[in-house]
Design a protein that fits this description.
mainly alpha, two-stranded parallel sheet, two-stranded antiparallel ribbon, 4 strands, 70% helix
Length: 180
């Protein structure tokens, strides 16, 4: 079963560079995150264009660069990607770098969401609003991927994206405190 999930993830993940082990995608999403945060930090007056660029970037990474598969797939077992990526042999061992990179990329991809939303709409500036909104945004993307066959509906992606939105919100709070 683990091998089947591994194959499904490799066939339907957002691999931009064929033959890549996923590291380049993580590097791209990390640079996307850093550029978003730098723009948000230093170009406060241009928040709406930055939010639009971020939205286009997320849609690009999650939908536009993919090709449709032949069938709809869903991985509904929570934390399966973590189990595929990391093992335990007296200490944590990386079992599959690709799955680990994709988890990291999913967290990084949604970190700007948790930063942009409370910056743009101050009424959403509470963690108990950011987390469900991050989950909802991720759920929309995963559902679109499922029905268009542009990816696999993966519960772990929902978890990683929501975690990313929460971490982005924590960065927002950190920057907010520093400004005051």
């Amino acid at each position: 079963m683990s091998e089947l999930i591994h194959i499904m993830l490799h066939d339907h993940a957002w691999t931009i560079f064929p033959g890549s082990d996923g590291g380049l995608e993580v590097l791209l999403s990390l640079s996307f995150l850093l550029i978003s945060l730098i723009l948000l930090r230093y170009v406060r007056r241009s928040l709406i264009p930055i939010a639009i660029l971020y939205l286009i970037g997320v849609l690009f990474f999650t939908l536009m660069i993919r090709t449709a598969g032949t069938e709809r797939m869903a991985i509904l077992k929570p934390f399966q990607a973590i189990r595929n990526a990391i093992g335990w042999d007296g200490w944590f061992v990386i079992v599959d770098r690709y799955n680990l990179y994709m988890l990291i990329a999913n967290v990084l991809l949604f970190m700007p969401f948790g930063y942009i939303l409370p910056s743009l709409v101050p009424a959403t500036g509470k963690w108990y609003l950011i987390v469900p909104l991050g989950l909802l945004a991720s759920l929309c993307i995963e559902t679109i991927q499922y029905f268009t066959k542009l990816g696999c509906f993966d519960l772990d992606d929902l978890i990683a994206n929501t975690l990313g939105a929460f971490v982005g919100y924590m960065l927002f709070l950190l920057f907010l405190r520093r400004r005051r």
